[in-house]
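Design job #97: recover the sequence.
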């Protein structure tokens, strides 16, 4: 049994001789590797989560859900909002700004089987900000903390918070960020997941992991998980070593690329990186992904939805542009399957 440290994380010696954090403890939920799949609105549905899991991801967050909607039993019973029987552990992320509604939604989501609740105070979408939700709340520490307290009291499962490093780079935003970090830790948040960009930056530029390192340095007993630009599995042990963070989440790097989890697992288990998937494996996984999507949507919608992943999948193909041209034009199930067959049949 490796020595426990502060009861929060532990250290192993793995293949490359470096000390790496290999596990992640989210309250009562323990993951055997220090990463999981982020919540990605419009992407992280059952299909994406199932593939992530198949390739070694230990835990995923479902698409962000509006707390207000989740308090309506009829909405909550829609299959797209329910966790799959075979995908535990899985977390639900909620968006809102009314503590009582957040608490009611959290209770309802745990009631239908989610294992963890994540509160979104990070979303930069204009329609979310206009309604004073998501990232807008980073300038309203009292509401953030009231939401956390209400949810904390409503459920016994782990409760996480997703933050960005502020609304913008103004000193007032930074002060609010630090206030939220300090007060949420005091209130017993099980982990902070922090995207190293401000809300105004959206996805521009590079994520600032130095601020995330400062959070961990100031609050060493807290569980701090970083987010931003995780595309290179081999670089992640060094990233955690340099910043002292406990873990990281995988977001855009997993879109049309479930293999990133297989690669990350190898890296963190001290095994050599696997060979990249050949065309035959890419074909098989793309078809599986598409067919899983078809189980949840009518054909026309499924075809459009799958297109969002094609950009990621095509990146591995030597004829990327031509693959994109074919699959972006496909409008029916048969055309998608024929397009995949045409470009990926030759292994
Ligand atoms: C299309 C898209 C949708 C996203 N949706 C969510 C979301 O619903 N909830 C959330 O906390 N973060 C969301 N994010 C942010 C990611 O979880 C992640 O923090 C961010 O993309 C930075 O990580 P990356 O640079 O590795 O992609 C989204 C990001 C993208 C690109």
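Job complete. Output follows.
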């Amino acid at each position: 049994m490796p020595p426990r440290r502060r009861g929060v994380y532990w250290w192993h010696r793995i293949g490359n001789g470096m000390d790496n954090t290999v596990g992640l403890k989210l309250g009562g939920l323990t993951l055997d590797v220090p990463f999981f799949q982020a919540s990605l609105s419009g992407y992280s549905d059952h299909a994406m989560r199932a593939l992530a899991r198949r390739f070694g991801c230990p835990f995923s967050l479902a698409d962000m859900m509006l707390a207000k909607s989740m308090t309506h039993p009829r909405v909550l019973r829609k299959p797209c909002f329910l966790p799959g029987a075979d995908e535990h552990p899985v977390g639900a992320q909620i968006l809102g700004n009314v503590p009582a509604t957040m608490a009611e939604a959290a209770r309802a989501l745990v009631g239908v089987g989610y294992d963890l609740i994540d509160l979104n105070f990070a979303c930069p979408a204009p329609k979310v900000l206009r309604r004073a939700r998501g990232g807008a709340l980073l300038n309203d520490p009292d509401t953030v903390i009231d939401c956390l307290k209400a949810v904390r009291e409503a459920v016994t499962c782990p409760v996480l918070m997703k933050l960005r490093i502020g609304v913008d780079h103004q000193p007032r935003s930074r002060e609010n960020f630090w206030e939220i970090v300090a007060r949420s830790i005091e209130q017993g948040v099980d982990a902070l997941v922090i995207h190293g960009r401000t809300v105004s930056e959206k996805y521009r530029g590079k994520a600032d992991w130095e601020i995330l390192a400062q959070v961990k340095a100031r609050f060493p007993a807290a569980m701090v998980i970083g987010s931003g630009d995780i595309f290179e599995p081999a670089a992640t042990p060094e990233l955690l070593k340099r910043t002292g963070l406990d873990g990281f989440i995988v977001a855009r790097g997993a879109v049309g690329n479930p293999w990133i989890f297989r690669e990350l697992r190898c890296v963190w288990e001290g095994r050599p990186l696997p060979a990249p998937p050949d065309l035959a494996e890419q074909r098989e996984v793309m078809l599986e992904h598409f067919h899983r999507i078809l189980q949840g949507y009518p054909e026309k919608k499924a075809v459009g939805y799958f297109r969002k992943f094609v950009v990621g999948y095509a990146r591995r193909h030597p004829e990327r542009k031509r693959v994109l041209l074919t699959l972006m034009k496909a409008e029916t199930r048969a055309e998608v399957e024929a397009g995949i067959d045409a470009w990926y049949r030759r292994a």
